[in-house]
Design goal:
Layout lengths: L6 H16 L3 E3 L9 E18 L6 E22 L5 E16 L2 E7 L17 E6 L5 E5 L1 H4 L5 H10 L2 H8 L11 E3 L3 E7 L9 E12 L6 E11 L21 E13 L4 E17 L11 E15 L2
Antiparallel strand pairs: 1-8, 2-3, 2-14, 3-4, 4-5, 4-6, 6-7, 9-10, 10-11, 11-12, 12-13, 13-14
């Protein structure tokens, strides 16, 4: 038999190699901006602390449930005013709607919904229609430029404090930043590629810690001119301290060792590559702490008393059609 490779085998080998190297779709995971482009988004955030104390040993059994925290939905129109040479955009954000609930141990401290007719005459309704300006990079890093008018739209009482917090530079940065995008220098990726970041835990965890958030480009689908990229995130505790670890709250110290802890930290982003717009984005951390103890003298077969605490922190963004 000749030592030569048949021509048809060579052709097949070349085709297979081309498929293996070229069929894995690439995606440039960056935001693209165009002057005068206007998009309406809804951003929802939650920071909820749940407390449940069950005492089956008592007669009758006793259960105490409490919830504290805030839930905020804000709908806004984002208009691109200018795009700089590096792709960074200056944008005007105009508030179209707000739903804001704050509770402290099941006591409602603040409840406003701009869609409710009864709320349209409240002082906080002055926040609707207010505008502020932001800067946002192709890598999704946002910062406030000027939010003075929005912050000062409501000045009196508790509602004034809520407005100042809602339109603070820090809250604006968090509202408009997209954490699921890679660094700009590493933004062109193939499906299956991953990257990671080390971040600190939010306030409320019994023990402050660092998390390694791993983002994976799960898929690139659709027609070539307007493909959609899906990125999934999963985070686990990291031994490497986060850059902001020194700023974290002290937590419960040694008392945290009394609890069994379970944590889930996940996220997802759907990016339309043709327009460079985020269609959907969310990240959610749920930390649950459980402590159980048999009452002194035994519980008579009723089971241990249990204390369950849960922290839920989430943020999501979606385009409003």
């Amino acid at each position: 038999m000749s030592g030569r490779t048949p021509l048809w085998l060579s052709v097949i080998a070349v085709c297979l190699l081309a498929c293996l190297t070229g069929c894995v779709k690439q995606a440039n995971l960056t935001l693209n901006f165009a002057p005068e482009d206007t998009t309406t988004y809804k951003v929802s955030t939650q920071m909820i602390k749940d407390f449940r104390f069950e005492q089956p040993s008592l007669t009758p059994p006793k259960i105490k449930d409490e919830q504290s925290g805030t839930t905020v939905d804000i709908t806004f129109e984002q208009k691109i005013d200018k795009v700089q040479s590096d792709g960074t955009a200056l944008a005007t954000v105009t508030v179209k709607g707000i739903a804001y609930v704050a509770k402290d141990k099941d006591t409602v401290k603040f409840d406003f919904d701009s869609t409710r007719q009864a709320d349209k005459g409240k002082p906080f309704a002055k926040a609707i229609g207010q505008s502020y300006t932001i800067k946002i990079s192709p890598a999704g890093v946002a910062e406030a430029v000027d939010a003075r008018d929005a912050r000062n739209s409501v000045t009196a009482g508790y509602e004034g404090k809520v407005a100042k917090a809602l339109f603070s530079d820090d809250r604006i940065k968090k509202r408009h930043s997209i954490l699921a995008l890679p660094d700009i220098a590493k933004s062109t990726l193939r499906a299956g590629s991953s990257w990671s970041r080390i971040v600190g835990s939010p306030p409320g965890l019994l023990t402050p810690k660092s998390f390694e958030k791993t983002y994976t480009l799960e898929s690139v689908e659709g027609p070539k001119g307007n493909r959609v990229a899906t990125v999934l995130m999963n985070a686990v505790e990291s031994a490497e301290p986060a850059p902001d670890a020194g700023k974290q709250a002290a937590g419960m110290g040694i008392f945290a060792n009394m609890f069994d802890a379970t944590e889930t930290y996940t996220g997802k982003m759907v990016l339309e590559l043709g327009t460079g717009k985020v269609l959907q984005y969310n990240e959610k951390l749920v930390a649950t702490y459980l402590a159980a103890e048999e009452p002194r003298g035994g519980s008579g077969g009723k089971g241990p008393d249990t204390l369950t605490m849960r922290l839920t922190q989430s943020t999501s963004m979606e385009i409003v059609e």
